[in-house]
Amino acid sequence: MGNATTLITYAGFTLLTDPAFLHKGGYTPLGHGVYTRREVEPACSPQDLPPLDLIVLSHYHGDHFDEVAARELDKQIPIVTNGYAAEQLTQLGFTNLHTIDTWEAQPVRKGDAQLLVTAMPAKHAPDEVVELLPPVIGSMLEFSQGGKHLFRLYITGDTLIHDLLYDIPKRYPDIDLGLFHVGGTTLLGILVTMNGEQGVQAVKIVHPRVAIPIHFNDFSVFLSGLDDFKAAAATKASLTTSVHYLLQGDTYRFSVERGEI
User: Fold this and answer.
1) Where is pLDDT greater, at 187 or 176?
2) Residue 211 pLDDT > 60, yes or no?
3) For every residue of 146-196, which 3-state class applies, written as one string?
4) N or C: which end of the chain has fewer CB within 10 A?
5) Model confidence, pTM
């Protein structure tokens, strides 16, 4: 949909990640008096969405849950997020909130299908300024049906490279698909999300079968576009993950059996 907003449908579930629907040219706050301008029109509005079973929110920041989402999304939709984000959403009138911290999980059932959402470690800023930004989680989405594991999807959330990323492939050695937040978001001169080169490094660390970079050109605070990621990926001869590129409004259809489009 644009930025970190994706629509994922699988095993009967329809879920939305990090909903942000501000129109191109609009401004959203990032805290501490900093605003960012939306540079690219989102691919849809909340009215265009199909019925949702769940929202997975990595953190409460203006480019991940904006005023349009706050105003127009159903206040009773289940949202899985961290504790700080849940506190902010409660103040906005959202009532069906489920909080998880790193390595904690929230199951969601629909008929004989289950989606297990587990919080993955993420670090939004260097130690010296980490308190200036809201806490963030990545997420692992594990789909199963009739007790049979089907698909595993990892989403980084807004993060930099940090030591706990190396624990993810130890716990989850078989990840089918990874969505990597890149863009080189820079606030007050400080890098707070991975740039293209770091995004490729994260792909090598986590090692999913397929990787898709997202969150790369939608806001004015992004200083490392998709071309940076492509250039870094092209120089990594040892990169065995298949990389697929999406622009706003594009769809990726995956095959569980073959791990390909």
Assistant:
1) 176
2) yes
3) CCEEEEEEEECCCCCCCHHHHHHHHHCCCCCEEEEECCCEEECCEECCCCH
4) C
5) 0.94
